[in-house]
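Risk register update: the risk of archive-format incompatibility is retired. Evidence:
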Amino acid sequence: MSQTTITFRIFRYRAGDPGSERFEETTLPVDETTTVLDALEMFHGKDRTLMVRHSCHHGSCGTCACRINGRERLACLTRVLDLETPVITVEPLNKFRKVGDLVVDPADFFREYPSDWQTLRRSEANPDAKPPQELAGYLRLENCIECGACVSACPVEDFLGPAVLAGLNRERINREQINDPPAESPEHDKSLLELAGGERGVWKCQRALECSRVCPTGVYPARHIQELRRGLDTPV
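Archived output:
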């Protein structure tokens, strides 16, 4: 398998030292299978001080999200040669407190999610399949992996953010489909809509659509925000 040498510009930073911000260049050999995460791990093998967060290596955990050539991506799914450029710049996500190098602190992002929201929804696969007698229906995990890419790409400040609002809208649907008796759903729906319509909610969205463009799992947060707006225009 032939190899190509690519230059990587990697953001470096140490918490509490703004003067430490810089880009460090390194050249690395890559082939058609090499991902940006692979390249970062190669560099880490040479410089153990590099801080980068990752876990699953296959696009399920979201922890390796960063900005690659100015666009939010999962490093583990981004093949170096697919970028079709001899120089690749890797930076941490925007709007998160920087911890070090490519690592950011997601704590504030996670705090926006109420702890009682659902992580399961009705499965769309094989809709005509009959579940076993002990099951009401087939369920699946949510698409959102909480990587923060949509938040980083969104141009709006002081905003609940596309990930939380998409989760809020999905929670409305989940409660109707999975858990709540029909008599309770309207009241629950109303409380979720009140949250969506607050001062940091859907009306701050500028419809830039960057959130949906960068989402690695096809959540399309902009669509969920529009559904919430329609719900707010219609009395519950």
